[in-house]
Amino acid sequence: MKKNFSEFKEFINNKNTAVIGIGVSNIPLIKYLVTLGAKVSAFDKKNEHELGDVLKEFKAIGVTLVLGEDYMDKLHGFQVIFKTPSMRIDAPALLIEKENGAVITSEMEEFVKYCPGKIFGVTGSDGKTTTTSLIYKMLSKEGYKTWVGGNIGNPLFTHIEEINKADMVVLELSSFQLMTIRVSPEVAVVTNLSPNHLDMHKGMEEYIISKKNIFKFQSVDDITILNRDNEITNSMAKEIKGKLMKFSIKEKNEIGAYFDSNKLYINSKEVCTRDEVKIKGMYNIENLLAAFCAVSMDVSVNSMRAVATTFSGVEHRNEFVRELEGITFYNDSIATSPTRALASINAFEQPVILIAGGYDKKIPFEVLAEQGYSKIKILILMGATKFKIKAVFDDFAKKSGKVIPIVIVESLEEAVLKAKELSVSVDIIAFSPACASFDSYPNFEIRGNKYKELVNSL
Question: Which string of DSSP letters, residue by residue, matches 307-344?
């Protein structure tokens, strides 16, 4: 049962509140908490110089700043603590404060708890952003006032008083955001699950458990959508409390969505053909089927079809950049896992020159070598994982005799130049890193924009 936001306003007023992390979502949160009467301290390892203009803004509204490498050592004496999503709930400083009576929460947890509109939550290892965007567009096409947030769009907690009961809210939710959530969306979508973020989670089991929170606290009236073709997600069916829908590209579902004879269906009704869908790849057919299930109670087949046949994709997701001398360049910077990169290169009808590598999330790369070798013409490796990925492909070559040319480079700039140098007319150059960006770039968007800048300057 959702709570009235007036309860939160009463709860937070005059509370000694800490916000950990002065990032994109927490800056508006900090300002908003001040307007609600909270006594706010903002914690971050950045120094005053790195904070820039926001420093003056915070000082002007009475926010206490706790900065520097040892900032967590000063976290004590707070009644409420908003943690940044990537911070583990079992961080020593948080555990001590919790024992001392502090309420540990997050912007997303409070938003889901108090949001008056119907919430559609989307999680999974791959396809979250595209599925979230498709659901948002379908609901908007039907005429609903629709909000989008979570990992994409704008932080929504600060707009919660503008959201009405009749509004629709679509959230892309990461395993980090879900780890501590104790309230689930009315509609929960799990696109698929494969090893991911094992640098932050204690193991695959913890990763899966955190994802299950998207439906764990649902009521019997709520809906969960699972990928029937993914072994992990399909096995969750027995844990669902509300209505269950599944989507599949392999089997027909009377209740749910499926792909059969080149056509996409929802509850046995045809929506469109695969040839009418603009976005490449069977993984995007899966994303569409998941979206059909999610909106099936609220959106007409006509609105689903209108979006399915016009949606051209999301930036940094197998995004066409340009054609030069018969060579086409694609930007798939969102591919921060081997399975996502594999899905991306499988979308092309010919082997690609693949640029990969980056921050090490402690995920095994064997799947990329074993299932992707036939789709890779040349492999160009960069970043912190370049030698780790090379070792996997070298080992695969020894066992199978299937050898792929591998080139090691020191930067994205060098990777683009080398890819162009080694390519011929009709080649496809795909930047699908299979890794996060944090070894060189703050996020995948900045990395993708840099790639596009380099390609467009050729």
Answer: HHTT----TTSSEEEEEETTEEEEE-TT--SHHHHHHH
Question: What confidence category does residue 202 fall into, taking pLDDT thresholds of 50, 70 and 90?
Answer: low
Give the Cα separation of 440 and 349 in Å (integer): 31
Determine the Cα–Cα distance for residues 351 and 130; give it in Å rounded to an integer. Answer: 24
List the domain range (segments joined by +) for residue 346.
Answer: 319-456
Is the entire prediction scored with pTM above 0.85? Answer: no
pLDDT for 266-303, tens place per residue? 999 999 999 999 887 888 999 999 999 999 999 999 99
Answer whether 418's CB lies under 8 Å from 353's CB: no
The type of residue at 134 is L
Close Cβ partners of 374 (under 8 Å, ≥ 6 residues apart): 351, 402
Residue 314 lies in a domain: no
List the structure tokens of 146: 């629709």
**Per-position b or e across 61-78, b if 16+ CB within 10 A of its CB:** eebebbbeeebbeebeeb
Domain boundary among 308, 332, 365: 308
